[in-house]
Design brief:
GO terms for molecular function: helicase activity. Keywords: ATP-binding, Helicase, Hydrolase, Membrane, Nucleotide-binding, Transmembrane, Transmembrane helix. By secondary structure, the chain is of the alpha+beta class. It has helices at about 60-70, 75-80, 135-145, 230-235, 260-285, 345-370, and strands at about 1-5, 15, 20-25, 30, 85, 95, 100-105, 110-115, 125, 160-195, 195-220, 245, 255, 290-320, 320-330, 335. The protein has 2 domains: about 1-340, no CATH class; about 340-370. Strands 1, 7, 8, 9, 10, 11, 12, 13, 14, 15 and 16 form an 11-stranded mixed beta sheet that branches. Strands 2-3-4 form a 3-stranded antiparallel beta sheet, with no helix packed on it. Strand 2 and strand 3 form a beta hairpin. It binds zinc ion (2 copies). One zinc ion binds near residues 87 and 110.
Amino acid sequence: MILQHKCPDCGADMQYDADSRLLKCPSCGKTQNIKDMEPDFDPNAKQSHDAEASADDVDEVYGDFEDFEEQSTYGTYEDNEAKHYICQNCGAELITDADTTATICSYCNSPMILGDRLSGKMAPSKVIPFTISKERAEETFKKWCKHGLITPKDFTKADRISSITGMYVPFWLYDVNGRGEAHAHATKVRHYTSGDYDVTETRHYQVYRKVSLNFNDIPADASEKMPDDMMDKLEPYTYQDLTDFNTPYLSGFIAEKYNYTDAELFPRIKQKTEHYMDQYISNTITGYSSVTFTDRSYDTRQKNAIYSLLPVWMLSYNFNGKNYLFAMNGQTGKVVGKPPVSKGKVALWWGSITLVTFLISFLITMAAGGAF
Ligand SMILES: [Zn+2]
Ligand SMILES: [Zn+2]
């Protein structure tokens, strides 16, 4: 099932426009507010891990996912690994990856939204729509390259960008409750002089903290393909922009479905939460000379997990036959990646340092010589 959003005026394929955040017709300029559009899929048919799910629903969420795995919906997709779709615009036959949920026809450039992979259990609850357009992404990227200290001259030219792709990456956003108890041994050390004596006074304290903390929207990327560390570095996203999902947001972009369930990724969230709790508790123990934790126990519970799509610009860049990959937060413009280092520039850079060192030592020698 391919979903298309045709312009009601001229029939062209409408696309999401990051500048206006509206659905826009590239041919006649007509716009539509996506928030006013009926969702393509009944939101009630979605899984129970909606934002509104109550604490009682939590067990059911897990149950849902286990059922889902046993029915091996994944298997069905794997059978269709090389699924063929026919572009309704130009008739071209496209072969898509099993994880793709939205793409662009490589022949006629029209958006293709693969509805069968976005409905039922696979329906995202929320999306952060792109706020950075392709043009702005390219511009930001160029600026970012220029700020790199040692980049090859050619690298900063935009025409070296071999591909720039707007991509919605699947994430789980967790709401969790962390309960914890911590015991610590703390000291207060005071030095003073009393008569002929230098006195060091050490007081010992038993410190105890018990906390219950709620955390919202802790993200974990659920895509197998995307490098975890790269995705972690793209954070933070501003979650106030989380919007109810609707398929028009995907028009003109690539989107992928999740490979890991929220339960499978929970250990990563647990680790993050415990780190936050550590920080929180440490910040409440102040005014001591030393603090040593003797015992800490944490219990992290998932209250809720929302399947969300977050915007990322992926840029691949070819330099001297080597491909470089960069990612840009499609909401904030933050770039993650490493520009290549040119040998010429390194030599020049070292050259200038060596020259300065030489000049300084030369001047010192002159000064020293002058003194005699
Ligand atoms: Zn139109
Ligand atoms: Zn086509």
